[in-house]
Structures are given as structure tokens and as C-alpha cells.
């Protein structure tokens, strides 16, 4: 550990950066429906005729509830949702722990990154209490919010200034980007099926009524909530059954 | 090894069975296109704008060829094809070795199976020559075909007769079915994306011009060929690139 | 559906076959321990020092129970068990639905299969009652057991006779084997980690005290029970926690 | 885009940070051997006797070369290596794209991170030429190295100062850490089998003699090289065959 050289700080000027709190999820493609679950499940007992099944909501809902309760998961895999997510890197890292998903992400090796960085908005609980594994998050004061915003922008601006300085000197993008914070916004294509989405939702939402309560970071929960509302719209009976049975992925 | 009791044979009568050579694949659902590959790939360099890309076939084909040649596989995962396959059990077993697919199959525990069994048709090469790992398959004589058909129907009929006898006596389906041959037809829902399909095609088709020549059993190749023609129709530029670069899955 | 030709039956003679009820599982290789779970988990909070942790059973058991209860599954993946399983094909098919396992199986394309076939032993419940999804299995009479054994040996003998007849005539193994029953014994190398094993056990054992009661076929449960006793021996604290928290894979 | 508030810079003092170029990989557990590949492969043709096979290196090497050349990959899965990797976050992100691996990582939500950050050493090529997908990396001048070191330490120090400021004010770790750069060192437990390792090596090393030349970032290649030397030591005949056949994962 040594004293390291630094560039002279330009505290009040410097690169323009955008502080952003919004995390967005857009459904860009899909083929997903409740009847599709029924058709896949019915191949067990109806064989070749299964995929021509036309059934009313009572039948569909009943079979789906049975599958969910009994944790017969495979019929929920024959469908598809692709989301475009714009979120800070630390949130995308949480998403990418899920290995049954497909991902393509914006590359800091192949393009210049934009100066857009995450800061928590005024609703975000800023402080933690309790022990690891049992944290409680509680609101910060107005001063806490100011501190976070100021600290963040100070660090982001220094980072982006040095990033640009290196790019200007012809340093490779893949090295210049190493100074950028994990709060830097990135964009990712993310594809899953209903079963892998339910698994993701179980781990990445905090719901007191869940059979297994999870404690995700709030930012990835914001991603999960937006995905969940698309899922509930496309597959309402599947989503209702998922809710009824404790949000345990089948 | 002991002499085991047998039921008296009823050689010339017995259960009606169907001998079938046809193996069918039907595309029942999908969301798959060449432009989808481009959009997923372009997120690397275009970020959020990627999914609104509209491009001509020249651009699409060029980018897809680049991805295929360089084995950048992930952009080929954001799509979806569901097939309904009717094939003998030994062929479905070959399919189910592929672990990135989703499957739901007709259940011999929950339904009575029908008396439909596979026999090779007159084009099927019947004989093997050479060592394991280097088999050559060559045509059989007319007598060979007769032998196979007669042997098959003898065994299938005995099996189905005993299956029915056990069901009639109230034996559980899951036990009665154990006598049925691996030639028994079954039905499966099978879902994959273009990347996992190309991997499947690489292993389950025999093409002399492939970079890595594979030696699948002919029956699963019949499944693969039908899937390949749907794939080529839905994603013609991806399929053309796959062909151009030696049928190696990216 | 037509009357099909059959070979004249030779009811009382014919090929020697072995009827077998025993299903065996042997642990052939492994690297699995409770302390390994702790080390992997502790990387979260101890970083580089995690893998040198030495802890007593109280600490290990406590942390493992916490991970199990909270469904933190990934620390249970850094270990390895390889089993050699000898079981009928229909049971191996149940095993091969599990896509996070690795498998290599005896090949009916590359070797002649032996005449060993499954029959239920005298303890096996033979009859089913109730509706699909809610079957109850109940004992058969002595006559039922005789019927099953006789039906099975009749079908197996006919199948093996025709299999041999085709091999003798030079028909390719991959075609001759199509007449063999799903009760034919096969051998498989099967590798998993503790997390994927717990998922397998949850689905492939029937335990009234499980949070999610499953209804596997008895034969694959026999495989699962043998694997479970090896697992309990190698990772006793992990197994105890799995039992305590309702046999839900974390 | 607005002018954002910043904390007054303390350019020459501030937190002590460590600049590190070393990326380390330690093999912490394993069960991997060439004979294990042979045993798994031989189950195809030797059935139950396969796992007792004792063979000389000629036989082992010959069979492994055959499997590699023919891309029979599954026999390479029945083994296991766990590595402890200490590397910057941007490198760990490259590792975590590999979905057949198991990972546990140091958590910035549950522990305070240390002030250790990556800088390229004097051998690292600093500059890129050419188009995306076809970059060439070339050496930087001594001034370039100085620039990178100074820019990096400026940004890292600003980031770590703000990180500490937020922690001191009681801000939650998961929020304070958002200012830290992707160059921050992290530690990960990473487990794979030989097949998934070969796939990783194919994509994460740059070898002119590979059938499919890949262009990974140098830092993840340093991880890959260290893993490769452990792999070559544990499974010398497998590694030799991998090299002989163009470093294409089977």
C-alpha cells in the first residue's frame, strides 16, 4: 500500500454526467400463454391430441393450480419472453447469476459507454440495521440523501473524467472502462421461460407472504416487479397460481 | 438364470397392433427470426437502440455470418421453437440427452399406451459393417426386411398381449408397461432455441460436408431433418450461415 | 392396423433370460463434505480466507441450516458424486429427465445387450387405485405376482428370441434392439452435486413428511434411496438440514 | 444532464489504496483424472465393468483422442475442479457468463470491500487498433503507462473515499458500494468439470493455432491460463488431445 499519484482534481467543473434513478424493463418479444401450459401438460395423458386442446378458463386454471401445487414444473417451460433491461451494472450482475436465462449485454470493450450513473431516489431506504442475512432497511434523513447524491456524483465524475482522459489518449476501451463504477448504466437482452422467470421472481422480490421470503437488493427487485407485471398480463392464471401457492417456482 | 414360466402362445391371433415407420415432427409454436439475432447481437454496440433495428438482408446476413464464424453463440438464443414429435421411445431417448431443451412426454404411468410400434421401412439400411465408432450401414436384402418385420411383429404382439393381460387384471400401468418395447411410439413436446437446435442438428444429422461428422441413428436423424427444414424456413440467413461454416453450432 | 406375420412361438424352450428385481447404485467417485459447503458460503463474507476455514460441527451445522432454510443453494454446488447405476431402462429414463446431471450410458448401438430384465419382487405394490395424479398403490395377491412374473417372462423371452434372431442374421444392433422391452437392464454413469442431488431426491422419493410430497415410480425411488444413504454419509449435516426443512432443495 | 454537486477534492491525501496487477487462481479441491474419462466412456461398451478398468497410457490416450476428435463430450463431465479466483470485478463478470459453472462470490452487500484495485502491469498491451470484432492490441509508451496508472489511482481513490464516507455515515453497504469501480478486486469460488473448462478455455484464451480463434480480454485470459496449467497437470492426456484437435471443446 503506497501513496499513489493522482491527477489534479477539477472539483467544480468536469464532465457532464447524468444521475438516473429509473430502471426500465421492456418486453420486446414473447410467445407465452396459459393455454400453452395446458397443452404441454396434457401431452402426458392425451398424447398427440394435446396441442389442439381448447379449454375454458376454469379447466385451464384448475390444471395450472394442480401443476403449481404439485411442483410439476416442466409444462411451464414451453414459452418465451425477451426483455430489454436498462439498469446499473451491479443490478445486471444480480440478473446474470441466473443460469437458465439467455443474455446479451452492451459491451464496454466495443463501444464507448455513456455517462449515465445510478443514484437512489428519495423513496429508497438508505440505511441497514441488523446482522448479515437479517438486514432491515430503514429510511435515511434528507441529509443522508444529500450525502449519497453528492458522494455518488463526486465519484462518478472523477471516474468519467479519467475514463475520457484515457480514451482521448488512445488507451483501449477495455482498459479505460475499468475505472467506471458498478453504478454505470448498461443494457441487456434477457430471455427466459415462465418457469425460470418464477424462479427469478422468488429470489428477486421481497414478499412477506412468500413461503420462502427472500431479501434481494431493491434495484433488482425493481427489475423483477416490471417483469412480473408483464408475466401476469400474458399468463394471468399461471401468475395467480404462483401467488396462491406461496410464490414457489414449480 | 432359470427356466421361466410363460403364457401359452397364441401365435396367429392376438392383439391388433400397428406397425409404423413414419416419424413426425410438427412445429406447434415459435417466435424466431433472423432480425431477432441481429437485435440481440447489436445490443453490444448499440445499447438500448438495438431492439428497434430495421436492416436489410445484406446487413443481417453479413452480421449473422460473422457471429457464426466467430462462434458468438448467445445472440442465437433469444428465440423459441416448440415441436410436437411422434416417434419411438428409443428415438425420444436420443432427443432427451440434450439438456438445454425442455420436454414433456406422454406418460405410460398415467395413460394406456396404444399398440403402435416402429418398424424400419424399405429404404432403411439394415446392416452394419465395421467396428464400433466406425460403423457403415448397408442395405439389407428383401429377406432381411421380411425377417425384421416378422421378428418385430412377433415381439411386439407378445409384448402388447401381456401388457393388456396385466391391465385387465388390474396391475398398475407403470408396471404393465415394463414389457413394452423401446419401439413403442410416444409423443413429446420439445422446446429449444436456435442455438440449442443447431447443437442438436450437429450431433443428430450425418453430413459428409460437416466439419465434425456425426453418426446418429437414422431414426433421430429423421426427427432432426424435419426440425431443420422448419428452422431453415423461419431463419433462412441463420441456417445458410450454419451450412456455410461446417454445421458447427456457434 | 393389419394382421401381422409372426414367427412360430416356441413357448417352453427358447433363450435363457434372467429376471432381476435388484436395482443397484454404487458410489464410484466423489469429493463432497459439509466443510466444503461452509467454505463456499463463507467466500461471501470472508473473501480469500474462506477456503482455509476450519470450524467445528456446531458452526458448520448452524450455517448449513441457515443456508437450507433461506434457500441459498449455490454453496451446495461445489462438490461432486459419481454413481454407477444398474437399473431397467424405464428407471434410467426417469433419471435422465434431470438436466443438471451428467450421464454416460451403456449403448445398445455398440454392444450386444444381455438378457437381464426387471420384474417386481414380492414386496412391490402391484395395483393402483384412484385418479391420475392421485394414485394409491396397494398390494397384489399371490396370483397377481404370478401373473406379472409369467407375463413378463413371456414377453421378455419373445423379445430376446427375436433380438437374437436378428443379430444372428446380421441385422444392425441399433435395429435389433428396438424389440427389447423398457424393462431391459442398462448401466449408467451419473454425476451430480449435492444441490442437484437434493432436487432429484425431492422429486424421486415419496415422503409423507416432505413439504412437497412427490409420487415417483417405486423403482427410481430405490435408486434415490441408495444415493441418499451415500449422501447422508458424506455430508451428514447437509443431509440433516435437508430433512429438517421439509426436503426442499435449496 | 445537470451540474451535479461534488465533495471538495483532497487530491494529494485521502484513503490508502492498493494498486494490484496480479490475478490469482488456486485449485482448492478436485477429483479429476484421465482414467476417469475412460471409465465413463467405456460404460457404452463394457457396461457395469467399466468403472474397474485399469489401462495403460497408450490405451487411455488413444481413446481420449478418439473422443475429442469425434466430439463425444459427455465422458469428460464426470470429474470436478474448484478454483479460488482473486480478480477484478470486470474479469469475474467474464467468468460468470459461463452457465455450466458454479459460483460463489464475495458480497459487497454483506462485507466491507477492501481498497484493492486493478491496474495493468508494464507488459499489458494498452492500445487497440482496428474495428470492433477485429481489434489488435499494441504496446503503449511509458507515458501511456503512467497515464493509466495515474488516471486509475485518481478515480479509485475518489471512489474509495466516497465509499468510506457513506459507510461512515451509516449508509447501507449495498448502496455505498455502487461508487466502486469494476476494477475492484473480488474473490470467487468457481467449480466446473473438464468439459465446461475446455469450453471456457476455447473462448477465454487467444491462441493463433486454435481452430476457432477467440479474442478474450487479457485479464480473463490470465485466469484461464492458470486454470489450464492445473488442468494439464491433472489430466495430461485429455489436455494433450484438446491441444491436438484445435482446442475445440468436445
Q: Biggest sheet of chain A: strands, sense, closure?
A: 4 strands, antiparallel
Order of helices and strands of chain A: EEHHEHEEEEHHEHHH
Distance between the termini of chain A: 51 Å
The pLDDT mean of chain A sits at 93
InterPro entries (chains A, B, C, D): Thymidylate_synthase_ThyX (IPR003669), Thymidylate_synthase_ThyX_sf (IPR036098)
Subunit structure (chains A, B, C, D): Homotetramer.
Active site (chains A, B, C, D): 204 (involved in ionization of n3 of dump, leading to its activation)
GO molecular function, one term (chains A, B, C, D): thymidylate synthase (FAD) activity
Please describe what this structure looks like:
The structure is a homotetramer of 250-residue chains. Chain A has 250 residues and is α+β, with helices and mostly antiparallel strands. The first copy, chain A, has a domain of 140 residues: Gyrase A, domain 2 (2-Layer Sandwich), CATH 3.30.1360. In chain A, helix 1 packs across helix 2, helix 6 runs antiparallel to helix 7 and helix 7 packs across helix 8. The first copy, chain A, is elongated, with a radius of gyration of 22 Å. The termini of chain A are far apart. The model of chain A has no long low-confidence stretch (mean pLDDT 93). Chains A and B meet through strand 2, helix 1, strand 3, strand 4 and strand 8 of A and strand 2, helix 1, strand 3, strand 4 and strand 8 of B.
